[in-house]
Amino acid sequence: MTAQLDLGGVSVDVLFKDIKNVHLSVYPPTGRVRISAPERMNLDAIRIFAISKLDWIKRQQKRLQGQERETPREYLDRESHYLWGKRYLLQVLETDAAPSVQLNPGKILLRVRSRTSEDKRQAIVAQFYREQIKAVVPPLVSRWASVIGVDVDKLYVQQMKTKWGSCNPRARAIRLNTELAKKPKHCLEYIIVHEMAHILVRHHNDRFTALMDKLMPQWQHYRDQLNRSPLGHETWG
Predict the structure, then answer these.
(1) Between the ranges 19-28, 70-79, 163-172, where is the mean pLDDT highest?
(2) What sign results for the dihedral spanned by CA atoms 210, 63, 166, 133?
(3) N vs C: which end of the chain shows fewer Cβ within 10 Å?
(4) Mean predicted confidence (pLDDT) in 87-110
(5) 119 within 8 A of 72, measured Cβ to Cβ
(6) Is CATH 3.30.830.10 the classification given to domain 117-227?
(7) What residues does each domain of the chain span?
């Protein structure tokens, strides 16, 4: 069953499901709001909950609507691409061999077969970024595991539309955005520490802030630097 709430101009879609807790989400690119609620919960209680979160909802909507994104890439010669915060020019070389990406001074060499589509070129470069992160992350996770006192059981690197990372505390699972390979390495390390800290403290409360201050005193500077950076270009349905 579905319903809709109007909170002073903010429209909220309500979806009743066989779940135990209320879940509030704000979706890109326009900031659409949805609440998933237990089937037993009445609409008045959901309205009160939504009103209590209204300031947060508006902040998220403003952030999403103002989120800077990269211009679309065509994966052509001399196009600018970034790795670990440094600018490289793409060099495309057509070959009969299997596709590959090679890092050279000032250049990223993309070898592809002739007539390789733009989507395929994008996938090849995305895999290159994924491999770059996978090579760097394990020693960072290992070092911070001993500092924080937590283990990461599962680690995923994938394209994420709206987040730099996420954590499932119960599963001790961390997900990292492939786009982090384009940013300075200290930004990647900040996200790793941030998500690992969530294994101990689930929410962004005072306890979490105090933990981050202790672990990484400059974390807010790194966060602001990263949040000023554009996410990858996305085509939305």
Answers:
(1) 163-172
(2) negative
(3) C
(4) 94
(5) no
(6) no
(7) 2-65, 117-227
